[in-house]
User: Fold this.
Amino acid sequence: MMDDRERTSATRVPLLRSLRRHLVLLLVATFLGALVFGGAASQLATRYQSTASVLLRPLPGNPYSPDAQGSDLTNLETESQLVTSTDVVGAVEEALGDRLESPIRLPSVVVSVAPNTQIVRISYTDPSPEVAAEVSDQFAQSFLEFRQERRNAKIDQQVEGLTTRIDAVNQQLTRLRKQGRSEDDAEVKSLGGQLLNLRLQLTTAQAAETQAGEVIAQSPARRSGIAIPPWAATLVGAVLGLALGVAVALVRDRSSTTVRTLDDLESLGVTVLGHESPDGDQAPSDSALMAGAVVNRRVPRPATITISHLSDSSQDHDFAEDLAHALSLGADGVLVVDSDPWHTRPKSRGLSDVLNGRPLARLVTKDPRGFMFLGPGRALDEVDRWFATKEFAAVLEEGGEEFGLVLVHGDGADTTQGRALVGVCDFWIPLVVLGKTSRTDLERAMAWAATVGTRILGVVAFDPGRQPQRTAPDATIFSDE
Assistant:
């Protein structure tokens, strides 16, 4: 019986393997979670907004509406936009000086005009309530000063123009009087009327309203946003992103039909003979020794066993030779038939020549590891055409009678030739590539083996990538040809 600690450890290992397979997904989910939450916290951080309400008074000689009367406030919207002009912003920064930790941010300045009123509201937003209140108030003061300066410049220009015209009219009157013109003279009367009108305009300009407006209200700073430090939000986002990534990884693993672990194989009721690692160099391997024990226990002689990949026929392997090596340690007679024309062993006379009538005994070679070997032969393109023929079955039968046990290095069972090879042999040891072979592939293979009457002794699992290659020494050829 497993105790709680062993049961927890057994559960933890598949979970860690699953998460390791989805490491990129977990890293991306963690990064995105931290980025989204950190960015949101920065954008929605606690800020304070303070608003100053300014009452604008109508000014005579409005520089933005030269034809306006003193009682009109035309283009008030235009005047309100001057709150964020370069002159006003510069005046605010100069007035506040060192009290500003950073330059004025124009997006933080909001100007609005109250409907049907002469009131302009100036708001400023800042992380500090004191800065928000001080800046909004200074904007109001600087805007009024700017407006007053524009008004004074316009009035001074009008006064200067009126004074010049008055001096010119006085000079004309003086010249006419020197000429002896009386006050009843029509020209003198006309110039006198102009002079009176100009003096009235000058008096009006000099006595005009001089106050540009006043600040009538300063609202307390109002807080908005989320009071979470960006670093804390980033940490929370990373944790939540990681949790989401783990959930997605587990869901993908549960819904995937890919065989990824030995547990996946055993859950389908398949005997696992061993697990081949790409860096293994022991010959024979532990998997071959275990498979050899099963063969010696369950396989009567003579017999034929095909060894081929369940899927992905592009994967090369030498497990048939490794198994033959393990079996030969017990002095069993074993013949390895390489029926794969694309295997890496040097090509010489072999299976294709036997199928074309040459005697089997004269073409087999003695492998230094203790077993006999028959290569694919020289007619490489003819080998896989014979798999479903009586001639091929006869060659395997002859090999079994002479050597006792025939191991056939086969093409992948996902091909027609590979399936035919499985059907002609008594037993089958499928090779499964973890992470590539699917449960569907395995179930179809089991169904095919049951259909053709071939018994599956068990499967050998390989890690994806390069399969272990244990190169055999040069073989001794028994043929005298």
Notes: The chain has 14 helices and 15 strands. The CA atoms of residues 215 and 471 lie 94 Å apart.
